[in-house]
């Protein structure tokens, strides 16, 4: 009897170890989030005196009021929204059209184009050649430099192509017998059946544009046109760059304002993600298997 109990305990050890690791992992993720959220509602004096804390003793909306009244922050939000909405629309339109074309086995040169797509998935042209092309096209300081240089993601294209190939050929034949052309077949039959993949990659593209940072620094020289992530970075390091400035030129962002900026920056994505989460496994995994 004792040996059986001891065996049961030994059998539970791997499960216990997994739960302990999960608890530590969850704490490592949640503690910084609670720290940022708590600091965003704390007055500056409490932050300077208490140091690390998760919940403030005094709650204040000073940081959020300052940000929502800051023209620079509001302008950065509007720029980020413009880049995200238009950029995602361009991404999905071009990715859908190209994936649909490459899903047709009768397309001449299909294998060559597929090979080129796979090559760009493994290798890139590099930052300097890409910048020279953008500059040669006169797109520097234009949002088109952000949209066109990331118009089609090869991985998204390959997975979406797999989704389109998984559509039963009988449905396409039936639609053609009813008089549907390629455009009507695509938008009325193929796209509705591929909504999981489309919703998934729409969110992927939107997150990519909302979080754009390096490309914006590289191609956008006018600071008044910087998107949200670049403004957030400048805001977080602003106090370090104030050295040597006069008091009139100094811009001081309180810790609450900095943390509030992080919260407000992440809030749109956190609000949208739960509604599209159910498409992730179905969209990516099915497309990968069928492709």
From TrEMBL:
The keyword Nucleus does not apply. It is a multi-pass membrane protein. It is found in: Cell membrane. Pfam families: BPD_transp_1. GO terms for cellular component: plasma membrane. InterPro entries: MetI-like (IPR000515), MetI-like_sf (IPR035906). One of its GO terms (biological process) is transmembrane transport. Keywords: Cell membrane, Membrane, Transmembrane, Transmembrane helix, Transport. Residues 77-275 form the ABC transmembrane type-1 domain. It comes from the Bacteria. The chain crosses the membrane at residues 16-37, 76-100, 112-132, 144-164, 185-207, 256-276. Belongs to the binding-protein-dependent transport system permease family. This is Carbohydrate ABC transporter permease. It comes from Cohnella zeiphila.
């Amino acid at each position: 009897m004792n040996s059986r109990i001891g065996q049961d305990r030994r059998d539970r050890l791997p499960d216990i170890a997994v739960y302990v690791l999960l608890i530590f992992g969850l704490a490592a993720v949640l503690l910084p989030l609670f720290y940022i959220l708590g600091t965003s509602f704390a007055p500056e004096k409490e932050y300077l005196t208490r140091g690390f804390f998760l919940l403030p003793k005094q709650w204040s909306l000073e940081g959020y009021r300052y940000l929502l009244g800051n023209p620079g922050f509001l302008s950065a939000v509007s720029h980020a929204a413009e880049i995200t909405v238009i950029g995602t629309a361009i991404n999905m339109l071009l990715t859908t059209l190209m994936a649909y074309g490459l899903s047709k086995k009768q397309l001449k040169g299909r294998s060559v184009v597929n090979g080129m797509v796979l090559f760009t998935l493994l290798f890139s042209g590099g930052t300097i050649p890409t910048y020279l092309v953008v500059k040669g096209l006169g797109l520097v300081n234009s949002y088109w430099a952000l949209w066109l240089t990331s118009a089609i993601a090869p991985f998204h294209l390959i997975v979406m192509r797999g989704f389109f190939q998984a559509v039963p050929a009988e449905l396409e034949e039936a639609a053609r017998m009813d008089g549907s052309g390629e455009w009507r077949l695509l938008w009325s039959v193929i796209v509705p059946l591929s909504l999981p993949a489309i919703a998934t990659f729409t969110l992927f593209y939107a997150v990519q544009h909302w979080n754009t940072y390096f490309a914006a620094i590289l191609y956008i020289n006018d600071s008044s046109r910087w998107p949200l992530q670049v403004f957030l970075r400048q805001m977080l390091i602003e106090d370090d760059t104030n050295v040597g400035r006069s008091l009139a030129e100094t811009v001081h962002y309180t810790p609450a304002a900095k943390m509030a900026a992080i919260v407000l920056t992440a809030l749109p994505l956190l609000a949208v993600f739960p509604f599209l989460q159910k498409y992730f496994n179905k969209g990516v995994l099915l497309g990968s298997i069928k492709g």
